[in-house]
Design a protein that fits this description.
The structure is a homotetramer. By secondary structure, the first copy, chain A, is of the alpha+beta class. Chain A contains twelve helices and twelve strands. The first copy, chain A, folds into two domains: 10-123, Rossmann fold (3-Layer(aba) Sandwich), CATH 3.40.50.720; 135-308 and 352-367, Dihydrodipicolinate Reductase, domain 2. The first copy, chain A, has helices at residues 10-20, 35-44, 56-64, 85-93, 108-121, 135-145, 174-179, 182-185, 190-206, 299-303, 315-335, 349-367; strands spanning 74-77, 97-100, 125-127, 152-160, 210-218, 229-236, 241-247, 258-263, 266-271, 277-282, 287-291, 373-374.
């Protein structure tokens, strides 16, 4: 693991998600750019001190030199955006598979380079767009692919949060500080942090691609250096219309990623905060409430489910589904066997590049007087 | 009453809304352009046959000639859009107050003329933007005016319906037929029929004015002549951002007008389909659920409530609140007394003009390559 | 109308419910045992002063002497429980049909007498167990009768309110005062006021009869003279098990009458506070959400619906459905025609007797050490 | 671990719950009474084959003989009810701490013996009444203890499931088979399996003790040998009234454990299927929605939370909270340090005995003609 030392947030999430299914063991880490903090974090995690490193370069070099059955199998990168590319690239170049937090990198050039490196090395790469790991997201995707909704006409995807309603980055809040800092976050704030999740979810569920956008992007809180609110009109490659909005100043909202998709025949709705429910809406018949674990669901839905119906599966379980699928593919690589395509379902480096392109276009549109910008 | 004969929808709604509080009695009508149908409708309503007229001109002329204590006090107009202006104007010119269904008229010129006539005659005019009649809409408006949310930053107002998901206007469906016909509906379909409700609700609740819009307006169903879907970016006069979307092809949606408003200090959310609940959201404290009839609410909320908490008040009650307030003002006019300002709270002819301007701007924006159009 | 003068609650509800569909006109009343108050109430209601009476006896006698086409068609009784029997009986004996608020009367003997009088006179009698007037209650009843749930196994019916959580009867609260006074309410408080609604709803929806009960009945608030909370085990005549609980000290609850019914094949759930939704639950398939106005519903559901889907119909509309059906039957009587059996669907004097028996048995059980009491 | 081999359900849940926080490592197991199946299960879990045992006796004896820093620290027992006592008792007698699935054992005598053994050995014992592990359950408990609701007057606790609506035990369904078998489950079916969870939740949240019960207990499905439905009137030691019902034949219900508590001043409501929400209801003020991670919550709530607000925490996280607290106490034992009382919050062997007493009393009451049975 690179990053995720004491005081970090997402590093702990990755560790819980990876541990849940007992297929992955944390064996080493460079948890902080501060060597003392890295060492302390290693102790917290009961790691062998000899495998707690002062920086990612030391970690990758040293681990690469260990015997194959001892050294780490893959690297997880949980640092801020500006620190994704270098360790990811170096890990790949040394033959390690990679799991990387989103967005893929700091800028578009890094993203393109990384795609090239992944292609060239042929190694596994997973991007943790974790929200697509929920069982009911997979159910929605499969139902749409199966034509239950008919041709898609309209998509509304929202991601409201309120935690940046005040200038928390001016306090000690570490999570706010880097996310609002152009040097660490990149050209976008909210649109990079959560807008990309919304974009990824919409394209994952519908199977469509956003073709053109028209964005109103704002930094609402006085003194903030990156956007904290974005409202975007969408046109999809099949002609469907859409809306994407993401905000971190929607006071009182927690983390309400949600999506509605309307087709010729029916609509559907899913909310991350009640993730085990998928509502399918018909014009002239009762709505149907699909629930995790109830009735005849698609194999990919079932594969993403751990406990019986009515035992709520949450954020960590969805996150763990990415690790589980990645681990299955990795195990197959190690064993030299084929893997069930069910398990190849995790966000890829191409999804990461797509997200970076979305970030660039949405910021460009926000600054433009031109109505529509092509993706 | 003008319009609302057999087979009509909104006429019956107006009659139930007007009857509920027993302050208004239907005394005459020109229910249809077909004199036979008008007469039959009058019979259905137990009216004196001598006061069931073949057309609105006959009605207004004849009633105006009746003794003051016999003739109608006001005219309600419930015809399709292209038939609002003429009877409204004639009624005003003959000294009758008017209640008119929305949108105000067929085109912008008619709207401006009507405002002028109302001003000149000094008569009462109510436009039935009925959704602002709900108690919790009034509560929301008062809370925002009181500063509970702080300065408003973002508004999301939605009005999804699905009933025009197929080309029902090609069937016998009378409601669909005129609403999708440019000759009867005007330049807009969904944006006139329901988009204006959303616009009116957003401005009513926030007390802000929409200052600029950027719209993507579509006729999604093949062969449809007017828009059935619209997605609009908004900027308000205080700098707040917003989104308005309205659709009649959101398959499986019933009539889900709803609004979320976010300020510096808190957010709020209201849904027409669960109208007795108003959710107020705080960033660092439990949400509060305001409910019709519970606790210490504003006088305008209380005035709009008929039964105790937990006895759901619905669409007809909200509609009736417009009639109730109109009747209170009318009674005061007749009695020559002052009226409690509480009762002056119903949509006006200016709100109607505002709605017509919105329709024109949103259709213009939909056809334009220019990003922002000023209201 | 008998009762319902200034300061009363349910009288105004009856008047709004009766007015909504414009089939019923209020022509006379004895609104209060205080003749001055009665007269003032009559003025509020724009009644002819000569038909505002000082007491019900005067009203019935005088109206009976009026010409047939002038005199009232039926009497509505909206007084406290101890004042139901006498005016109802006298009205029937003078040939007037009756609508009466629930519970039927003050005691069981009165109830039996009234049933006898109704049978003997052959007149129409409606009891306003208004909650069965909701469209989705009718849908539930029809689905169960149709076997959608299979044989019924379990019923849970609840009626929690919180308004008597403190000793409000010690204040000026008129509604609380008579409801907690054995001289006016009868032997039961909450169980008579709302427990009977729950009993009526359960038997109406399921088509079953409660066969035996085991009750824990309490007066929780210090100094209260009648029960304010009751929890009852039920056995139905087909062997189904059940629970009924009703409370007026469930602090924070508004008026949450609700029911769940489980059969061999499926379950269903309905809540009065969200009355337009009926949830049908399957063990191995998605739940279905039936909604007022959506899709293919039973004729009795459709007949109880006034506006399109998504336009919420509430308490007054459900109440008005009882008046509407009663008026249809009354009109047929007057016209000497047959009435569509759809409209014969309103609570009867027998339902009222059933409710009185329930009150007596549940109070008896509450005082008994015997586990099961037969109905 | 004892039990939890291939085909088992709850064993896997325990392993995920124990793994999540990375404080507990599975080192050995006797996963099945079938030695081959036990060995295979050990392989699935990447265990050292020398520590996969053919039965629990071999495991406990062998592990006890290993050096202190190698041998297991505690035993988790995840077998059917009739196989709890023997391994738990033997583990304790050999000096191992114990985590045991609920209910505590097969019969009341075993339960009493086990309490005695735990007292005598002074070892740690946790019973996995996992539903009390949810953050909002802890919040509810603390609010009630703090007097937010005032004196408690009424408790309604429900646990409806539908999965035994048909005679699934007659199929190959392993979970149904042992739960409906008196030889493996004990004297109770649903009341032991889920009724005890409801009893435990009610007493945990309110801090009250059930004092007397009156139960209607049924085996509804033809041919079933143990109860599948139970409805119980409750009286608590402070005089509060209550209802507990649990069912496994509530067709269409998933796993809807829920509770409502009403006090003099307010009420509260919590549902396991939406576990991150706690609703607090006031009679004359807006309801408050407490949410995991939002605002100023009690330390025990915060300690039971892993991710920020709006990232749903589910069943496995709540289950893991029992393991986390147990591990903290165990670590303190090992280290010889004091433990923060926050972490002593997990169900104990006394809670297990209480649950067994409840099972016995509720079955006794179900068979009795006596109305109230004292606990």
């Amino acid at each position: 693991m690179v990053g995720g030392g004491r005081g970090a947030f997402i590093g702990g999430v990755h560790r819980m998600a990876a541990a849940l299914d007992q297929q992955i063991e944390l064996v080493c880490g460079a948890f902080s750019s501060d060597a003392v903090r890295s060492r302390q974090s290693g102790e917290d995690l009961y790691l062998d001190p000899s495998r707690v490193y002062g920086d990612y370069e030391e970690m990758i070099r040293t681990e690469a030199a260990l015997p194959e059955d001892v050294r780490m199998d893959f690297v997880t990168i949980v640092t801020p955006n500006h620190m994704h590319y270098a360790p990811a690239n170096m890990a790949l170049e040394h033959g390690f598979h990679v799991v990387c937090d989103k967005p893929l990198c700091f800028d578009l050039q890094e993203a393109r380079d990384l795609v090239e490196t992944v292609y060239r090395t042929g190694l596994l790469f997973a991007l943790t767009h974790n929200y697509t790991g929920y069982p009911m997201v997979k159910q929605a995707r499969e139902m749409i692919a199966d034509g239950v909704l008919g041709e898609i006409r309209k998509v509304v995807v929202e991601y409201p949060q309120g935690w940046l309603s005040t200038r928390v980055e001016a306090t000690e809040q570490k999570q706010a500080a880097w996310r609002t800092d152009p040097k660490r976050s990149g050209i976008a704030g909210a649109m990079g942090d959560i807008g990309t999740h919304a974009e990824n979810l919409a394209e994952y569920i519908t199977g469509l691609k956003i073709d053109a956008i028209c964005a109103d992007i704002s930094a609402i809180v006085e003194g903030r250096r990156l956007d904290d609110d974005g409202n975007v009109l969408l046109r999809f490659d099949n002609g469907a219309r859409g809306i994407l909005h993401a905000s971190q100043i929607a006071a009182g909202e927690e983390n309400d990623l949600n999506i509605r998709v309307y087709g010729e025949k029916a609509g559907l709705e899913w909310h991350q905060m009640e993730p085990n429910t998928l509502e399918v809406k018909y014009q002239e018949a009762p709505r149907k409430i699909y629930r995790t674990g109830v009735g005849d669901l698609y194999p990919s839905t079932v594969a993403a489910t751990r406990v019986p119906a009515g035992h709520p599966e949450g954020y960590l379980e969805a996150f763990a589904n990415i690790y589980k699928n990645f681990a299955k593919c990795l195990q197959a690589r190690i064993d030299g066997t084929d893997v069930d395509p069910l398990y190849e379902d995790f966000p890829s480096v191409e999804d990461g590049l797509r997200g970076m392109e979305f970030i660039y276009k949405v910021i460009e549109s926000g600054q433009s007087d031109q109505k529509w910008i092509k993706m």
